[in-house]
């Protein structure tokens, strides 16, 4: 179980933002390709306000390591920051897990692919996410900190205008552009 406090930064020049991060001392520590599968049911839907199920397969592009995780992201709040508790376990057979979930009625399995480049500054994590065009066509930065105060202090230090800050999930972002 892991608690996360985060926001997304939308409509930024991500290359310029990465340069700013390096300038203030952030270090790149991870680059990975991910397949993310969100899971739901057409007959007993998991309400977005409660959280969501996800299977994630990741390939570390630096070490070549592959990992597969099954997660329920329990939503605590989406006011000012997005706060979740991640209940996660590593899995070995993604296709079998997907089949089990489907047999249990979790028939909505939406797959998206992204590249993630991650930086760390003190206890703050910055993930630059670039999804496939069908999932979400605009790269963004996800910022995760230990507290809301710490998160907004670093955004102030980086001179991020509040208009770029979002607490929407990727599903909500995807929905917002399809309207």
TrEMBL record:
InterPro entries documented for this protein: Adenylyl_cyclase_CyaB (IPR008173), CYTH-like_dom_sf (IPR033469), CYTH_domain (IPR023577)
SUPFAM superfamilies per the UniProt record, alphabetical: CYTH-like phosphatases
Pfam families xrefs: CYTH
Protein origin, superkingdom: Bacteria
Gene3D superfamilies, alphabetized: Hypothetical Protein Pfu-838710-001
Domain CYTH, first and last residues per copy: 2-176
Xref: CDD domains: CYTH-like_AC_IV-like
Protein's recorded name: Adenylate cyclase 2
């Amino acid at each position: 179980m892991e608690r996360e406090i985060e926001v997304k930064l939308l409509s930024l020049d991500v290359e310029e933002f990465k340069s700013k991060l390096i300038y203030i001392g952030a270090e790149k520590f991870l680059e990975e390709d991910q397949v993310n599968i969100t899971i739901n049911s057409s007959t007993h839907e998991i309400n977005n306000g409660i959280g969501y199920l996800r299977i994630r397969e990741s390939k570390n592009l630096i070490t070549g390591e592959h990992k597969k995780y099954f997660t329920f992201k329990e939503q605590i709040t989406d006011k000012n920051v997005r706060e979740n508790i991640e209940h996660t376990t590593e899995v070995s057979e993604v296709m079998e897990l997907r089949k089990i979930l489907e047999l249990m009625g979790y028939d909505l399995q939406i797959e998206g692919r992204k590249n993630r480049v991650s930086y760390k500054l003190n206890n703050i994590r910055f993930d630059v996410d670039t999804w496939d065009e069908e999932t979400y066509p605009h790269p963004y930065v996800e910022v995760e900190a230990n507290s809301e105060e710490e998160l907004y202090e670093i955004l102030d230090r980086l001179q991020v205008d509040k208009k770029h800050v979002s607490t929407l999930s990727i599903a909500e972002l995807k929905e917002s552009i399809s309207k």
